[in-house]
Each structure stands twice: as C-alpha cells, then as structure tokens.
Amino acid sequence: MMSNSETASEHTRRRKVIFCDFDGTITENDNIIAIVKHFNPLGWESIVDDIVSQRITIKDGVGKLFRLLPASQREEVIAYAIGNARIRNGFAELLEYCKLQDIEFLVTSGGIDFFVYPLLAPFDISVSHIYCNGSDFSGDQIEITWPNPCDEHCSNSNGCGMCKTTIIRRYPEEQYIRILIGDSVTDFAGAKLAEIVYSRSYLTVKCKELGLPYIEYETFHHILDDLKARQSRED
Ligand SMILES: [Mg+2]
Ligand SMILES: [Zn+2]
C-alpha cells in the first residue's frame, strides 16, 4: 500500500520542460555581438553600451544594431555568423536524454532566425519548439522582426523583443517543472519563474546578487549529470 505522500506525489507528477537560451548558452559566444564586432559598423559600441546599461530595451538596441548593416551584405553576414559559432559540448547528448525521458525541450532565443535555424538544423528539434526573432533583408538595411512579443504580464513593456517569460507562462507550474538554462541578464526574468535554473556567466552573478537558487554549468554534460541525479532520486 502506498503512503499518503507517495499517493500525493503520484497525483502531482508534473512533466519537465526546458527553456534553453541560444547565444552564449547553446553557442559558446554571443552571435549578435560577434557579428557587429566583425563587420564593425560605425556606432555599434555605444548601442551595445546602451543595451547593457539598460538605457534602451533589448528590442530597440538589437533593432538599431542590425540597421547599421546594409541588407546587401546578407550572404556575408549569414556566412560569418554560422561559420563563427561553436556549439557548447554535450548539447546533442542533452537533447537525446530529453527525448528518452519525455522532457520537452524549447529553445527560447533572443537571437535571429538566419543564424539560429541553420545552427540548430543538425539537431533533432522541431521548428515549433524554436523561438527567436526574425529578419527582413528587403530594404536598404537589415531589419529585425519580432514575432514573439511580450504578453500583458511581462514587466518589460514590450521591450524584450523575443519575450522569454511569455513563453514560460504558457507552461503553468501546476503541470510542469520549469527548467531554465541561460547565461545572461536576458535570462533573469525567466529564472525567477523557473523551478530549476542552470546558469553560467552573468546570470550566475545576477542569481547570487538576488539570492535566487541556481546550478552552475560549463558544458551541457554538467546539466545532464544533474538531471540524471534528480531522476534517480525521483524513481
Ligand atoms: Mg545568452
Ligand atoms: Zn517581455
């Protein structure tokens, strides 16, 4: 016969869902910064400063950065972004584990479609599980488009560009164990909602500062090990 607590945990068994950042998380570096650094259009540094110091929103800043680049450079920009990026170790293994364990895996990225989709193409992730910003090369300059805006609950007044918390809120905590993987300030609002936070770099600093629990990782193998350890405790 089951004890009361076992019966209760059976009733409340929730499915795990992972919200994984892209730039600086799935890829080792930030691709947007790498692009503007490489093509070096006049004025990019001050825009990045404005974003980092939160004088302008991510959405306004990223939009402005790409408007510095002529749309005619499309092929060079795409080729550079894809050629320059490196996937963090253990990513394929983590995806395989998620598939086996029926853990839903979502990419929640503030990156741009023209590098996010090609870089993820070798991996078995459904396109419907990849959230990122779009791009339009039909004008004179590269224009970023925003198919995933903030909902009415986001405190960023539509400044996120790709709103990670809006996606997370579609997975209610009554039904899901929400797991976030990230590396920067743009992951922090999501980290506050998530039950498990895997962090590195600036996200770790932010979590420490505000006393939010986190588990540090350097490769996806660390995350995989931790997920497996949790699983064996649950079984
Ligand atoms: Mg990132
Ligand atoms: Zn938002």
Automatic annotation (TrEMBL):
It comes from the Bacteria. Keywords: Amino-acid biosynthesis, Hydrolase, Methionine biosynthesis. The keyword Transcription does not apply. It is an enzyme of class 3 (hydrolase). Pathway: Amino-acid biosynthesis; L-methionine biosynthesis via salvage pathway; L-methionine from S-methyl-5-thio-alpha-D-ribose 1-phosphate: step 4/6. Its EC number is 3.1.3.87. One of its GO terms (molecular function) is 2-hydroxy-3-keto-5-methylthiopentenyl-1-phosphate phosphatase activity. It catalyses: 2-hydroxy-5-methylsulfanyl-3-oxopent-1-enyl phosphate + H2O = 1,2-dihydroxy-5-(methylsulfanyl)pent-1-en-3-one + phosphate. It holds the Pfam family HAD. The keyword Hydrolase applies. Belongs to the HAD-like hydrolase superfamily. MtnX family. Dephosphorylates 2-hydroxy-3-keto-5-methylthiopentenyl-1-phosphate (HK-MTPenyl-1-P) yielding 1,2-dihydroxy-3-keto-5-methylthiopentene (DHK-MTPene). This is 2-hydroxy-3-keto-5-methylthiopentenyl-1-phosphate phosphatase. It comes from Paenibacillus plantiphilus.
